[in-house]
Amino acid sequence: MNGLSFFKRASRAFDDYPTLAKLIVVCTVSGGGYVAYADANSTSGAHAIAPVSEIRKKKVVVVGTGWAGTSFLKKLNNPSYDVQVISPRNYFAFTPLLPSVTCGTVEARSIVEPIRSIVRKKGVNVSYCEAECFKIDADNKKVYCRPNPDSSMNGKEEFAVDYDYLVIAMGARPNTFNTPGVVEHCNFLKEVEDAQRIRRSVIDSFEKASLPTMSDEERKRILHFVVVGGGPTGVEFAAELHDFVNDDLVKLYPAAKDFVQITLLEAADHILNMFDKRITDFAEKKFHRDGIDVKLGSMVVKVSDKEISTKVRGNGGEITAIPYGMVVWSTGIGTHPVIRNFMQQIGQTNRRALATDEWLRVEGCNSIYALGDCATINQRKVMEDIAAIFKKADKDNSGTLTVKEFQEVIDDICERYPQVELHLKSKKMRDIADLLKMAKADVAKEAIELNIEEFKKALSEVDSQMKNLPATAQVAAQQGTYLANCFNRMEEAEKNPEGPIRFREEGRHRFRPFRYKHFGQFAPLGGEQTAAQLPGDWVSIGQSSQWLWYSVYASKLVSWRTRVLVITDWTRRFVFGRDSSRI
């Protein structure tokens, strides 16, 4: 009877709530079974519930599959979004190993992972479209795309994609500084295809130089490899090329040994300017010992099919023509045309990248986010909000601010304006009271009381600590992770904001601003030696740093498949040397 009673109650429940679709309850009683069944044929009534399928998900469009976009996709786990990925590249590439691909130390397929493999196991609905975004319409919330130019459709079938949120993470392109001949005659090193093209070009140069019809002068030109740019990419490629030539190619092409020359051109006074001076000095001395010709203060003014023209600073503007066989151009990054057009559309002209706020939102576009190399954070200055900060801290409206009042909001100030904390560290101040005391040097800390003008004076130098973040994979990956965490907690943060106080408005910001944490940087210098600069002003140079580089890069690879492949490539190189086949 208990089973029959339950059956009756279940039947009444289906009658009262007919929108519960096809729910079946099986109750076992004395070895038998009862089945209760209801079909959702009605959507009316006082207790009607909308089907889950009718609840519209917010559509997030992600443009780009580089470090920023892939990190965002990997960390996004909120199923309330419908995600559309758009990129002409259907894989993620571990770009720090591109110089290794140019010389066969690592194979190209070992550093790439299909984007569909990365997102297929997620609980979020993610779809991918191999296409190129050529226009962003912020007013109508659309992005206009065309198929990959390499596809059979030849990029002619254009289409539009609607969005609720747009995440722009398409990176940047090489910066040529409008130097004549660079696009036509130089190799870049931004994509896997670039690395493969360089590898073929190196082998071609040695094969051409081995032909019996070549003169010694022509052999010398063909085997002259020029690297433009003394940053991490240019330096690492020059080191990899030197090892490839001396460890492998000269054994296969012994007659070419005396003709090979590698030249590194840098417009600044030193290579690796973003590194510690100890690393810079060591790198320049090592390259000199290895026979790599480092020309500092050399600015490229023109590139032809056989010569590269440079102007040396302090040489009276004299232009020198250098014969070459191959040029690799690695001098920084520039803006994609679609980003430049979008910047003009939203009034961000005369900038190198999209300006965002500290939450990675594009300024003036609340539903558009930009991260990675295509964007830069426009950190708000303290002096722009100094009056609002003073008013918010002056809770008793006395017109003056005490140390105690300021200390009550200092955590929010440091979180909203990180330059305050950096300024305290640079001045070796223990706390905020030391900063305020600068405005009243003859008053004890506990008795300090400042008016608005004195408060401005105390914080007048704080904004001098503001710096733009470097355009590195490390920054882009952290930004992608941060933004994904924000999207995961969007609804929760709307109800319970976790960010700092809004000094110009009421309440708090939904999220804490993005903060970049630097974990260090590496500069492989060839010959199994690497320079490492880690937090805390810790510098290490040598073979121990090379093994640290191996372990860190292996751990950062996106999947176990790529980890195994890269480690296998490194092992193969140690045992058999680099592959010199032209494939």
UniProtKB/TrEMBL annotation:
Membrane topology listed for this record: Peripheral membrane protein
Coiled-coil ranges (or none): none
Molecular function in Gene Ontology: calcium ion binding; NADH dehydrogenase (quinone) (non-electrogenic) activity
Cofactor(s), names only, from the UniProt record: FAD
Catalytic reaction(s) noted: a quinone + NADH + H(+) = a quinol + NAD(+); a ubiquinone + NADH + H(+) = a ubiquinol + NAD(+)
Cell compartments where the protein resides: Mitochondrion inner membrane; Peroxisome
Keyword vocabulary terms for this entry: Calcium, FAD, Flavoprotein, Membrane, Metal-binding, Mitochondrion, Mitochondrion inner membrane, NAD, NADP, Oxidoreductase, Peroxisome, Transit peptide
Class of this enzyme: oxidoreductase
Enzyme Commission number: 1.6.5.9
Statement: the UniProt record of this protein carries the keyword ATP-binding: no
Domain (EF-hand) ranges: 381-416
GO-annotated cellular components: mitochondrial inner membrane; peroxisome
InterPro entries, alphabetized: EF-hand-dom_pair, EF_Hand_1_Ca_BS, EF_hand_dom, FAD/NAD-bd_sf, FAD/NAD-binding_dom, NDH-2, NDH2-like_C
Top-rank taxon, per record: Eukaryota
SUPFAM superfamilies per UniProt: EF-hand, FAD/NAD(P)-binding domain
Family the UniProt entry places it in: Belongs to the NADH dehydrogenase family.
Name this polypeptide is given: NADH:ubiquinone reductase (non-electrogenic)
